[in-house]
Design a protein that fits this description.
The protein has strands at 30-37, 43-52. With 64 residues, the protein is mainly beta. A hairpin with a 5-residue loop joins strand 1 and strand 2 (43-52). It is rod-shaped. The N and C termini lie far apart (60 Å).
Length: 64
């Protein structure tokens, strides 16, 4: 009579570490800048303009 097979356990792959956050946008993918008004003086206002982070191109992950 053949020997009974032992059930084998499937090995799980180790979890991948999360990528590092972009230092320029803190992982949000967006960068905010103050709005400047006026042609000659370029006064700063209290308003903010949000755009795509140019360091990580909006992914929020740090580049090498």
């Amino acid at each position: 009579m053949p020997a009974a097979k032992k059930p084998t356990r499937r090995k799980t792959a180790p979890a991948k570490p999360e990528p590092a956050k972009c230092p320029a946008c803190d992982g949000t993918g967006e960068a905010s800048r103050a709005v400047r008004v006026g042609a000659r003086k370029g006064r700063l206002t209290d308003h903010q303009q949000t755009g795509l982070c140019l360091t990580c191109w909006g992914t929020g992950e740090a580049t090498d």
